[in-house]
């Protein structure tokens, strides 16, 4: 098919690649002069949504990479520039720029009887082109949410986080930062270092997940399939709507879980022997690295950028997370902030925290709902983006809610010819691999290798209900998904790239790695269309992960424990 892709950022690039793999004729339009989307920086990007100067990824490159261009090496957190270079390398390796028309902005998409008419503005001229299918990959970062009614009376400077580049413009000023997400955590930390006074205003607590564990390991090492299934499938009465290794067969499910308990016990025993060996033979212990995953000295141990793993910082995070789930729930139901670097600013007094919310503003004076007041020169809005521009022309998303699409991306009304790829935010995990798997599915549908389910509306409804249950504390964030692993596995099952249960049962080492080991998207390139075979297996086993013993023991015990006495939480 002839397919239009809108946008050449991380989501658009992988969509072009997956469509080309299936033999489609692809034309990608991007309004920028090069690939990269928000990661591309140039001299003319003031006022545009762009990655700020000192940005570090909030998940490691192992999980921010594509499965068909894996990251080799230890789990580290790339800078903005390093990640842009990775995207450029991906584009160059697969010659994706040959399918991209730069400096070209899509202004309208119209549905014909059996095709799509895409209107493009380039060089001051508009033209239209016909396509069989369209994929919108331009991302949700279009219209900054500046509509904060409580601040309408504020007469000082108002800056949205999309315009933030560095902290220089805030030096010596009195600054109010409204809202906190991963970018907000960086922004409040950086502003707190140079401002005369800095206050962080929040209305609720999201869940803080530091990027580093014990100074040497990335926290996303702890993203484990068995853990996600235990949290979101077994420890709740909410019906589980997704397919996974065992499909819908109760017998297969019982066999799989029985095997997991046996192999969990074996893994625990072998891990315990390894620990004993390392204690008895010091020379066998792996050397502690001098530099941590954030590029900072490993000693003293860090939790995040400039965030020492000490009692004060750790207790602050624990207290914060308890406030994020006042019912003590084990399963997190609010979006994560995978960035704890702002914590020392509050602990050490450089940043004041107000969690009551804003009541009103008059001139420079802001009054909070707890009756506290303060004067500010500048307000920085970390308040996200509007979904108003999610739709383009005839390509409409019901209620601006991507949960009304099949698997968050495929429009149910256009016979599989229209997709919104990358409009998803995992609680923990990266958007690029999600976009890649969505694009693989979309490309296979257009090839006729996949057929959409007949009861697609029913499936959308079930999965939407499940997601809303597990994101009930972040109801406005309809792009969020509670588990990247479970979501991706359900896509992989349909694509045909999820490792078959029988292959895992016959290969205990593979079973243990996929079920108890750290998640690695290389697992989606072992079998199925466009697989990488042995290279993917090698990548899967390239990491020595010493948390498998602990995770295998914990999950095996929980699996044997009756659900009636299941622990309420593991915080």
* Ends apart, CA distance between termini: 50 Å
What is the makeup of the main sheet? 5 strands, parallel
Residue windows where pLDDT falls under 50 for at least 5 positions:
none
Spatial extent as radius of gyration = 24 Å
**Inertia-based shape:** globular
**Average pLDDT for all residues:** 91
> What percent of residues adopt helix (DSSP H or I)?
25-40%
**Derived structural class:** alpha/beta
Tell me the strand percentage band.
15-25%
Protein name: Flavin-containing monooxygenase
Family: Belongs to the FAD-binding monooxygenase family.
EC number: 1.14.13.-
Organism: Rhodococcus gannanensis
Textual characterization of the structure:
With 571 residues, the chain is of the alpha/beta class. Among the domains are: 146-212 and 297-381, 3-Layer(bba) Sandwich (FAD/NAD(P)-binding domain); 217-287 and 453-571, no CATH class. Helices cover 32% and strands 17% of the residues. The longest helix is centred in the middle third of the chain and has 31 residues, at 250-280.
Topology (elements, then pairings):
Elements: E1 2-6, H1 10-21, E2 25-29, H2 61-64, H3 80-93, E3 100-101, E4 104-111, E5 116-122, E6 125-131, E7 133-136, E8 143-144, E9 157-160, E10 174-178, H4 182-194, E11 197-201, E12 207-208, E13 212-213, E14 217-218, H5 225-234, H6 250-280, E15 302-304, E16 307-308, H7 311-324, E17 336-337, H8 343-347, E18 352-354, E19 358-362, E20 365-368, E21 373-375, E22 378-381, E23 385-386, E24 418-420, E25 425-426, H9 431-447, H10 456-470, E26 480-481, H11 484-495, H12 501-505, H13 508-516, H14 534-540, H15 548-560
Parallel strand pairs: 1-2, 1-7, 2-3, 7-24, 9-22, 10-11, 10-22, 11-18, 12-17, 25-26
Antiparallel strand pairs: 4-5, 5-6, 8-23, 13-14, 15-16, 19-20, 20-21
Helix pairs in contact: 1-9, 6-13, 6-15, 9-11
